[in-house]
Amino acid sequence: MKELIETIVKPLVDFPEDVQVNALEESDRVTYKLNVNKNDMGKVIGKQGRVAKAIRTVVYAAGSSGQKKIFLEIVE
User: Fold this and answer.
1) What is the mean pLDDT of residues 55-73?
2) pLDDT over threshold 90, residue 66
3) What's the CA gap between 75 and 73, in Å, rounded?
């Protein structure tokens, strides 16, 4: 899942080397924390959050077969 998130986000940003995805696993869910360069934050979120919503939709769909819920947080 980390590779999927990186594959989606890296082409969108100006500083792909700063993209980091960390997973935090709990008993019933997995939270992925996405860190990008401060200057790329607007590109990842998009106008009115449309890009972030699209990324989350793809990630949630890819993780829907698992038993744990998937969450994606975009961290500054």
Assistant:
1) 90
2) no
3) 6
pTM of the model: 0.89
- 23 Cα distance to chain centroid: 10
Which one of 3.30.499.10, 3.30.300.20, 3.40.50.720, 3.40.50.280 gives the CATH number of domain 2-75?
A: 3.30.300.20
Closest CA to 1 of 55, 76, 74: 55
Boundaries of every domain in the chain: 2-75
Average pLDDT rounded to a whole number, residues 15-37: 95
Residues 6+ positions from 76 with CB-CB distance below 8 Å: 38, 41
Q: Note whether 1 and 23 are within 8 A (CB).
A: yes
